[in-house]
Structures are given as C-alpha cells and as structure tokens.
Specification:
With 269 residues, the chain is of the alpha/beta class. 41% of the residues lie in helices and 14% in strands. It has ten helices and seven strands. It has a seven-stranded mixed sheet with strand order 3-2-1-4-5-7-6, sandwiched between helices. Helix 1 crosses helix 3 (49-58) and helix 9 crosses helix 10 (254-268).
Length: 269
Amino acid sequence: MNKFAELFKSNEEGMINKFDHYFEIYNRHLEKFFDKEVHVLEIGVYEGGSLQLWRKCFGAASHIYGVDVNPLCKEFESKDENIKVYIGDQGDRSFLQTLSDDIPTIDILIDDGGHTMKQQIATFEVFYPKLSENGVYICEDTHTSYDPYHGGGYRKKDTFIEYCKNLIDKENAWQSNSSKLKVDEFTTSTHSITFYSGIVVFEKRKVSKPFAIQSGKRIFNTEDFQKDTSGKIKILRFILKKIPFVKTTFRNSKILQNIYGRLNYLFSK
C-alpha cells in the first residue's frame, strides 16, 4: 500500500496538486521516516493540504515546516500539530539563511515552490548542507528547467537540471584525476542522486571512497592474455605517437579518442 497515495485520494482538506507518479517516488524514498520524530520542510504551501498530508504520513511526532510567499498561508500554522509556516521568497538567500538558522533540524526537504531556476538553486545551496546526515532532498517540477517562462530551456546554462548534471561529477569525484574535480563535502555526504520525470531526489549518507571486491575463482588467465597482446599494442601506440595526423585524428574523434585512452590506460598499469 502507498500511504501517500491513499491519503491524497481521501483528502478533503486544503487542495493538493501533484503529478500522479510523484506518490510512488515519495513512497520509495520517504517510507523509512514513518512514525519517527522527523523534521520536514516544504517550500510552497499552496492551499495547505500537503502540510496535513506530511503530518498524517509521518505521524504525531513529526515536525512540519512550510514556506510560502503568500501571507495568507500563515493560517495553516498549528501549534497543536507541530506545523509552523514561514512567509518569504525562496529566491531571497538572506531569507533562506534566516530560515535555516531558525529550523534546528531538517530530515526531509521538498521544494515545490516557485520553480524558477534562481529559486531552486538558491534553496538547494542554502539547505542541502543543512540537511541531516541521512536526510532526503526532493526538488519537484524540474520540467521547468526546459520552460522559458521559469528561466529554463533545453541545455540552457544555469537551469536546475544542468546544475544537477555538474553534481553528478561531484558525486563521482573519487575517480577523478583532474585538479578541477576534487572530493568535497558533497562527495562524502551524498549517497545517491536519482532523476525522475519532473523530480530529482538526493539521499544523504556518509560515503567513503569506493573500492572493488571480488568473489569466485578465476576462469581465464587474463595476465597471460595481456602479455600476448601487449607487444602488438605497444607497436600500435608507437606508430600513433610518431604520426601527427593519426594522433590528431585520434584525439579529435570521440570514438578514436576512447580507443587511444584505453591504450594509454593499459600501459600506465
């Protein structure tokens, strides 16, 4: 059973507006927080219905925080239900920083706010470092990265999706030999980045440098194979280095560059 979907269908309180496939995503990433003292921050209160949805899903011990630019949303605040609402613009980094300082802990952040590139990126940069060690960050409606009205566009620089593509590099920085890509706090605290249609989910967890492990017995003697072929490859590599035109062609072609890179890898071992 998907508790999020069931509560959505039975909702008779404030309006909730979601894409249908979001509930499966919530269930996959947030079910682990059920009936725990979890702190949830939702950017974008709308009609207040989702605040109640989170409250019912996560239980009486949960703390729910909402943010909206509309002052009328303050009426959805409820001390008895541990629901607090802040009024402000998520594109204003000074407001976001004040908000971050005021909320002691954030385990789940759901960005369903204004959906502009400035707002999504500012919210992520202020709050992702604040997210708890095993927290989940969800940015919704990321299709706006392709919508000019929200500042998006296909492959347009500085959209949230393009921003996230750079974060994929950061997550894989363990394998980088480039001075431009170093292991940092994001690398060591991000367990996964999951892309869905219209949603990006970040799951935090302490991460150590990956290492390979093996099991089972060896079937082929790959060392003998490498010795048998290494002479031919060395000759090919020597020729490539001596012929400028061929060398240039290899470096300019994506397919040939990949082959050339593999040859270099073999002989750097």
